[in-house]
DNA sequence: GAACATTACATGCACTCGCATCTAATGCAA
DNA sequence: TTGCATTAGATGCGAGTGCATGTAATGTTC
């Protein structure tokens, strides 16, 4: 177990995460009124492309259940997604994207991609 | 510019960051009463090994200046570091580690290393 | 079916963060 | 020296997060 490699990888992750998060927050926020978490959640919903249980989202996004609940609430307030109770299990809530949500996502996607390209393209694959 | 690689790298960073941060927060917090930021700052101070300006710390840690200021305030309150005014530039503040701080850091280091090893050792170098 | 455990999601709370701003010290120009 | 810009660090504030807990629906055991 190469400790130096492990720590090096951790520092790489810390640096890239900080830089990317900061840039995404700025770019997505200024240009599209979305935070990184909002974008991430929209992204998952769009790619899943059918109604999605909050619970399923929870597994895919790196957020606590409570944080996710609030992100969805914010997205719903902005009318980018709609919530509804599950018919099968009335404890459950499904989320689906609205037309406005899809449009917003599609507008924001190139911005996100540009930020990531800027930050990761000059970064060669993490190699020993 | 391979978009798939860029996005893949980003997802890797997101996943590892979330997992590591969560584990560090839990382990360092429960076992040593330190948050990840506190540990990070102690780490930099110990490695620099002579008095360090807040400003210098700011460049090395992935925190805003205000967040750093508060982390140092917390560490000082816990008597793990001491603050003092710079003699050369009396706007400046230098930070040095106390004996208790060094001890705490040395206790916490193996915990941090164990967490990182657990998370990154099974992760081969990010390769295309 | 009554009582209790579990699950899904929402919410109160405390905490950390970044941004904007404040204070104090320094640098610089006239 | 005076006046103004800049820099170092602290702080008020709003926002987002996780943990613990609350509420309601479901499952389970007797």
Could you explain the architecture of this structure?
The structure is a homodimer of 128-residue chains. With 128 residues, chain A is mainly α. Chain A has one domain: Orthogonal Bundle (Arc Repressor Mutant, subunit A). Chain A is built from 5 helices and 3 strands; from the N terminus they run ααβααββα. Chain A has a 3-stranded antiparallel beta sheet with strand order 1-3-2. The mean pLDDT of chain A is 92. At the A-B interface, helix 1 and helix 5 of A face helix 1 and helix 5 of B.
SSE diagram, text form:
2 copies of one chain form a homodimer.
Chain A: H1 3-32, H2 36-48, E1 52-53, H3 54-60, H4 65-77, E2 81-85, E3 93-97, H5 99-120
Antiparallel strand pairs in A: 1-3, 2-3
Helix pairs in contact in A: 1-5, 2-5
The structure holds a DNA duplex (30 and 30 nucleotides).
Helix content of chain A: 55-70%
C-alpha geometry of chain A: globular
CATH superfamily annotation of chain A: Winged helix-like DNA-binding domain superfamily/Winged helix DNA-binding domain
* Low-confidence runs of chain A: none
Number of strands of chain A: 3
Question: How would you summarize what this structure contains?
Answer:
Two copies of one chain form a homodimer. Chain A contains five helices and three strands; from the N terminus they run ααβααββα. Chain A has 128 residues and is mostly helical.
């Amino acid at each position: 177990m190469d400790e130096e490699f492990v720590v090096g990888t951790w520092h790489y992750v810390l640096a890239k995460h900080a830089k990317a998060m900061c840039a995404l927050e700025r770019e997505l926020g200024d240009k599209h009124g979305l935070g990184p978490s909002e974008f991430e959640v929209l992204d998952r919903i769009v790619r899943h492309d059918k109604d999605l249980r909050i619970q399923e989202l929870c597994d895919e996004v790196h957020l606590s259940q409570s944080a996710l609940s609030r992100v969805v609430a914010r997205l719903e307030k902005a009318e980018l997604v709609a919530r509804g109770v599950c018919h099968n299990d009335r404890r459950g809530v499904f989320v689906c994207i609205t037309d406005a949500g899809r449009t917003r996502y599609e507008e924001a996607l190139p911005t996100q991609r540009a930020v990531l390209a800027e930050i990761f393209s000059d970064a060669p694959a993490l190699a020993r």
